[in-house]
Amino acid sequence: MNQIRQNATSRAAERDAVPWPRPERLALFLDLDGTLAPIAPHPAAVGPTPDRTALLRRLHGHLQGRMAILSGRALSEIDRICGGVRLPAAGVHGLQRRDACEHVIETFPAPGLKPVTAVLEAYAALHPGVLVEVKPGALALHVRQAQARAEEAAAMAAELAKAYGLELQAGDQVFELKTPGANKGAALAAFMAEAPFEGGVPVMIGDDLTDEHAFEAAQRLGGFGVLVGDRQPSAARHGLADVDAVMTALAGLADRLERV
Ligand SMILES: O=P(O)(O)OC[C@H]1O[C@H](O[C@H]2O[C@H](CO)[C@@H](O)[C@H](O)[C@H]2O)[C@H](O)[C@@H](O)[C@@H]1O
């Protein structure tokens, strides 16, 4: 029993130790919901916190700008939750991308989104708890407050995606219908091809299915992914238990960067 307990403890310790690349090479990519911010009942219930904002500001400075947020949220939402620190970022799973010079590249929204918005809003109006989030180039059908509808909502989202030429991205209690052609992996690769990220070692920290694209891209480009939580399978080579463990690991990294 003690042995089992000891093994579990050492596994947890291994999981919580991120082997950061050398500070001058590290290019850090961070997911938002479920990674930097705990999951909340509703997207609007997530807001900035002074600690998170201060930590992001510190890291961005110490990494000489080689840090970006990769999120399913719109850029405006990323900025709101980051407390107004305007970081390089990919929004809506890469459909929007703001580079280190604050230049924003946005994919033109698919025409199918308009009719699909009407269908989903009519569905949400009939079913309390179902929420439709309209984003630039995508729609999110949230079922966190109506989990009994999850299967039905997944089937409907899949059917609508096929009928209207949209891409389906499943996430944590959400089914997203997106303009095709973007994902977090492509966004990470685009950042890595330009200053100040170029030549760095990419590390992506994320929790959800959409982060898998970025884990794969980070690995392909010489770095690795860090999975938050224990969802499996995952392309991430390292792990952190939860948002608190992420904040602790990032604070430790900031301290280390300060000493360099
Ligand atoms: O890529 P991320 O930054 O992790 O964004 C993914 C989606 O996050 C938001 O939805 C999720 O978080 C909400 C707040 O905790 C939660 O209520 C919801 O159930 C989750 O799916 C956001 O609303 C989506 O637009 C993002 O795509």
UniProtKB/TrEMBL annotation:
Catalysed reactions listed for this entry: alpha,alpha-trehalose 6-phosphate + H2O = alpha,alpha-trehalose + phosphate
Pathway where it operates: Glycan biosynthesis; trehalose biosynthesis
Cited Pfam families: Trehalose_PPase (PF02358)
GO terms assigned for molecular function: trehalose-phosphatase activity
Keywords: Hydrolase, Magnesium, Metal-binding
Keyword Disulfide bond: no
Enzyme Commission number(s): 3.1.3.12
Cofactor(s) needed for function: Mg(2+)
InterPro entries: HAD-like_sf (IPR036412), HAD-SF_hydro_IIB (IPR006379), HAD_sf (IPR023214), OTSB-like (IPR044651), Trehalose_PPase (IPR003337)
Family per similarity comment: Belongs to the trehalose phosphatase family.
Primary role: Removes the phosphate from trehalose 6-phosphate to produce free trehalose.
Protein name: Trehalose 6-phosphate phosphatase
Source organism: Peiella sedimenti
